[in-house]
Amino acid sequence: MINGRRLFVSSAVFGIVIAVVYWFSTHNPDGTILLGLMATALVFAAGFMFFAEREACLVGDRDDALPAQAAGERLGVFTVASSWPIAIAFGAFLLLLGMVVLPALAAFGLVVMIVSILGLGRESR
Amino acid sequence: MNSARARLLFGSGLLLSTAGCGVYALPRGATTQALVMHQDWTVFTLAGSFVAIVVFALILFPLVVWRRRGDEYPPQFRRNNKLEITYTIIPLLMVIGLFAVTYHNDIIVEHLTAHPQNTIDVTAFRWSWLFHYPGTAINIAGTPQAAPQMVLPIGETTRINLTSVDVNHAFWIPAFLFKRDAIAGVDNSFDLFPTRMGLYRGRCAEFCGLDHALMTFTVRVVSQEDYARWLRAGGPAKVSAKGASS
Amino acid sequence: MSTAATAVPNPASRRGIIEWLTSTDHKHIGILYMCTSVFYFFVAGLLAMVIRAQLAQPGLTLVGPHAYNQIFTLHGTAMIFLFVVPFALGLANFLIPLQIGAPDMAFPRLNAFTYWIFFFGGLTIFSGAFVNGGAAASGWFAYAPLSEIRISTGGGQDLWIIGLLMTSVSGILAAVNFITTTFLYRAPGMTMWRLPIFTWEMIATSLLILMAFPSLAAVLALLFIDRHFGGQFFNASAGGSPVLYQHLFWFFGHPEVYIMILPYFGVISEIIPVFSRKPIFGYTGLVLSAFAIAGLSMGVWAHHMFTTGVVSNGFFAAVSFLIAVPTGIKFFNWVGTMWRGSLLLTTPMLFAIGFMLNFLIGGITGVMVASPPIDYQVEDSYFLVAHFHYVLGGGSLFAIFGAIYFWFPKVFGKLLSERRGKWCFWLLFVGFNTTFFVMQFLGAMGMPRRVYTYQNLPGWGNLNLIASIGALIMAAGVLVFVWDVIASSISRTRASDDPWGGYSLEWWATSPPPEYNFTSLPPIRSERPVFDAKHPDLARLSQK
Same domain for B103 and B145? Predict the structure, then answer.
C-alpha cells in the first residue's frame, strides 16, 4: 500500500505547510482553522497508513506480473445485487425530509435506516 | 475541418479578441483609482490575448498539417524533458510577473489617505441606499422606484464608509471601475478621487432578493464650488452638470 | 485467466426494474448516475432557456422576480450538483474498474447507496418548487443572511439544504470507493504509473471531494441550525458573521469547481491520444499537475471574496495565479500529443478540440479575475458569468458530450452517428460562443448578474439578444443529440469491442462488458495495454 501511504503523507505535509504559510501571511483565524482541520484529517489518514496498514504485496504493484500469475487468487466477496442500499438511502431521505416537514416521518425514516443497515450486515455474513 | 475553415476560425478568434471599442468596452474610468484599474485590465488583456493567439495556433496547426491520410502510425514519442521543463518555467515566470503588476496596482486602488477631504456614510438595505453626509443634516434615502443620488466633488478625496443593515449588498459604480460589498457587521471603507464631472450610474451587485435588479443609485460629480454650495444648502437641489454616462 | 470472485446470490427476481433498483454492479450504477445527471441537464437547460427568453430585451415580463430568482437558483444548483459532478461520478463508476482490470468496485453495495441517496437528494431539491413560497431562491451559494429564515421564509430553502446534504454524502462515499478500488484492485502489472490518465484524475478528484465536501456539509448544517434551532452563526446583530458563511462555503466552493473539471481533463486525455494515434505526451507531468491543481485549489477560496474587503487579497491572488501553471502544463501535454500525430476528427475528437479552445478562454478570463483590481469591476457581473460558463460549459459540458460519443458504444453496445454527432458539435460550439463571448462585454460595461431585467442602456439590449439567440442554437444542438441517441437505440447495428482503436483496458472487454468485466486480460506494460497487445512492434518502441 506504499502508494496510498505516499499520497496521504505528501498531502498531509502540503496541508501543514499551506496552513502555516496562510497564518503568517494573513493572520486570519477562519481560513487557518479550515486549512488546519484539513491538514489534521490528512495527517490522520497518513498515520493510519503507517501504523494500521501492513505492507500489502499487491500483484498490481509488480510491474512484471502477468494476469495468468494471479489466476485463482481470491479477491473477495462481491455482491451481485442487494435491496439494502436503496432501502438505507430511502430511510435517510425520510429522516432528513422529516426534519423539515414532520418529526414523525423522521422517526420512521430512522427506523427504516436501522433495519436496513442491520439487513445489510446480515447479508454480508 | 479543412484548411479554409481552420483559417476562418483562427481569424475570427483574432478579431474577437481585439474587439472592444466604443460602447462595448470597459468604461474609461472617472477616478484616479479607476485609471490604475484600467491599466491593470489592459496589461492582462494584452497578456491574455497573446497567450490565446499562441495556444490557439498550437491547437489548430496540428489539425491542418497532420490529418490522417492513410494507415500510418506516427513516431510514438512520449516525453521531452527539456521542453516540459521549459513550458513549466515560462508560464511560472509570467504569472509571477502578472502578480507583481497586480500587487502594485491593488495597493494603489485600496489605499486610504490619512485625511480625506470628505466622508459619506453609505448604508445598504433591501432595496435601496442611504447616503449620510456626517457633520451635516443631509440624509438621502432612495426606493427601488426613486434611485438616490450621491453628490461628489471633483478633484477631492471622498471617503466612503459602507455597511448593510440586512443581507449582503454591493456598492458598484461601473464608471469608477470599482465595487465593494456591504455586509452587516463589516465596516468597509474606500476612497474615491473623481477626475471627471458628470452623472454616473450605480447599482447593487450582490444578489439580495426580489428587487435586487432595481436597487440602483446615481452619482453626480460636480465642481468643488458647486459641492460646497450644495452642502450649505442642506442637500438635494438642482445642480447643473452635463451629460450622463453609465 | 481471470481471478476468482465469489458472488453472493440474490434470491429476488432480477428482471426489469427490480434489477435496476437492486443492482450493485458498477456498470449499472454508472449508467444510472449518467442518465439521471443528463436528465437534470435537460431540466437545468430548460430553465436557462427561460432565463435567456426573459433577458433577451430590457423590460420584458415573461417571468416576475420571484419566479426568476428560483429559476436561476435551480439552474445553478442542478447544473453543478446534479449534472456535472454526478456525471463524472457515473463515468468513473463505469470506467475505473474496467480501466484497472478489476471485476467491480471495492464496496459494491456502498456504491449503490451513493447513487440512491443522490437520486433522493435531487428530488428533494426540486420538490421545493411545490411548497409554499416556492423553491430555494437565494442563488446556488445561498449566502446568509439572505438564506436565513427571517428573509427566506419558505420551506424551499430547507429542502434545498437537506437535498444538498444528501448529495454531499453521496459524493464523499463515492470518493472513498474510488480511492480504495484504485489502490487495492489493480490487475497484475497495472502499477500506479501505468494507470490511464482518467483514473489518475479521478484519484485527485476523490481526494478533493474528501477535503472539500465536509465544509459544505458543515455550512449547510450551521445554516439549518440558524434557520430552525435558534442559531446565530451568520447573524451579525447577535455576534455572528455573514463573512464566516462565505469562508465556509467557498472553502468547499472553490475545490468544487476543480472537482467539476479534473475528471474532464481526464476524459480529454483519453480521447486525444486515441485519435492522434500517439501515446499521451508528458504522462508524469499530467499526473503531477493534477495533484498540484488539487492541492493549490484548497488555498484559493477567498478569491471569491475579494470585494468583501476583509480577506488578504494578496495571498489569494498569488495562489490563484499559481494554479494557472499546472493547468497550462496540461494544455501543452495535449498539444504535444497531437503534434506530429495522425489526427482523425471524429465527433469525440471535435468535442475535445472544442473543449480546449473554450477552456482556454475560460482560463484566461479566470487569470484576469484573479487580479483584484480587475475583480473590483467584474465581480458579480456578466463577465464573471461568461468566465465560469466558459470553463464549465465550454469545458466540462463539451467534455461530457465527448465522453458520451466516445464511450457510448462501450456502455450500450451501439454506435452513435458520426454525421449527427458533427451537427451536434457545431451547433453547440457556435451557439455556446455566441451566447457567452458577448457576456464578457456586458459585464465590463456594467451589467450585474442575477437580475431579472435591466435598464435600456446603449448596447445592452443588442448583446443580450445575441446571447439569447446563441441559446436557441445550443438548444438545437441538444435536440440533434437526443435524436441521435434515440436513432441509435432503435438501430440494429451493434458496436464492436473496440470501434475506435482504444488504448485502455475497457476496450479489451466486450461492448457492453459482461458481469465481472473480463474473461481474460492482456499483459500490462504501459498505460495503453490494449494498444500494446494489438501493435506489439510499436509497443516495444514506445515503452518508457
Answer: no
One domain, residues B123 and B240 = yes
Same domain, B124 and B213: yes
Say yes or no: A7 and A57 in one domain.
yes
Beta carbons of B63 and C367 less than 8 angstroms apart:
no
Together in a domain, B99 and B123: no
Domain around B176: 118-245
Tell me how far apart the alpha carbons of residues C252 and C250 are, in angstroms, rounded to a whole number: 5
d(CA C107, CA C90): 15
Task: Give chain B's domain count.
Answer: 2
Q: Which of C50, C20, C24, C15 shows the shortest CA–CA distance to C35? A: C20
3-class state of residue B172 by DSSP: strand
CB B50 within 8 A of CB B90: no
pLDDT tens for each residue of C226-281: 999 999 999 999 999 999 999 999 999 999 999 999 999 999 999 999 999 999 99
Q: Say how far apart CA C181 and CA C184 lie, in whole Å.
A: 5
The residue among C241, C247, C175, C182 whose CA lies nearest residue C207 is C175
CA gyration radius for chain A? 22
Same domain, A6 and A57: yes
ipTM value for the complex = 0.94
* One domain, residues B169 and B140: yes
Query: Treating both helix axes as pointing N-terminal to C-terminal, what angle do C283-297 and C197-228 enclose, rounded to 10 degrees?
Result: 10
Whether residue C183 and residue A85 make contact (CB cut-off 8 A), yes or no, is no
Specify if A10 maps to a domain.
yes
Query: Which residue intervals of chain A are DSSP H helices?
Result: 2-26, 29-51, 84-101, 103-124
Q: Which of residues 92-131 of B touch C (CB under 8 A)?
A: 92, 95-96, 98-99, 101-103, 105-106, 109-110
Give the count of domains, chain A: 2
Residues of C whose CB is below 8 A from B51: 360, 364
What chain C holds in terms of domains, given with CATH numbers, is: 16-217+241-542 (1.20.210.10)
Find the domain containing A112 and state its range.
84-124
Burial of B71 (0-12, 13-18, 19+ CB in 10 A): exposed
A66, A92, A123 ranked by CB distance to C8: nearest? A123
Residue with cell 490619512: B114
User: CA-to-CA distance for A85 and C32, rounded, in angstroms?
Assistant: 14
Domain shared by B104 and B156, yes or no? no
Q: Does pLDDT of A73 surpass 80?
A: no
Question: At C8, is the pLDDT very low, low, confident or very high (cuts 50, 70, 90)?
Answer: very low
| Residues of chain B found within 8 Å of residue C445, distances taken between Cβ atoms | 23-27, 174, 246
pLDDT band for position B6 (cuts 50, 70, 90): low
Residues A9, A57 within the same domain: yes
How far apart (Å, rounded) are the C-alpha atoms in residues B202 and A30? 32
* Beta carbons within 8 Å of A62's beta carbon, 6+ residues apart: C188, C189, C191
A98 in the same domain as A52: no
* C-alpha separations of C84 from C89, C115, C257, C424 in Å: 9, 15, 10, 19
- Domain assignment present for residue A105? The answer is yes
Both B157 and B94 in one domain: the answer is no
Calculate the average pLDDT of chain C.
Answer: 95
User: CATH code at B225?
Assistant: 2.60.40.420
Final residue before a domain boundary, out of B110, B130, B150: B110
Interchain proximity A60–C186, CB inside 8 Å: yes
DSSP codes joined into one string, B60-80? HHHHHHSB--SS---------
CB-based contact B174 C280, cutoff 8 Å: no
- Grade residue C14 by pLDDT with cuts at 50, 70 and 90: low
Best residue in C306, C357, C376 to probe B by mutation, most B CBs within 10 Å?
C376
Q: Do chains B and A touch (3 or more CB pairs under 8 A)?
A: no
Tell whether B192 and B211 lie within a shared domain.
yes
Please name the amino acid found at residue C405. Answer: Y
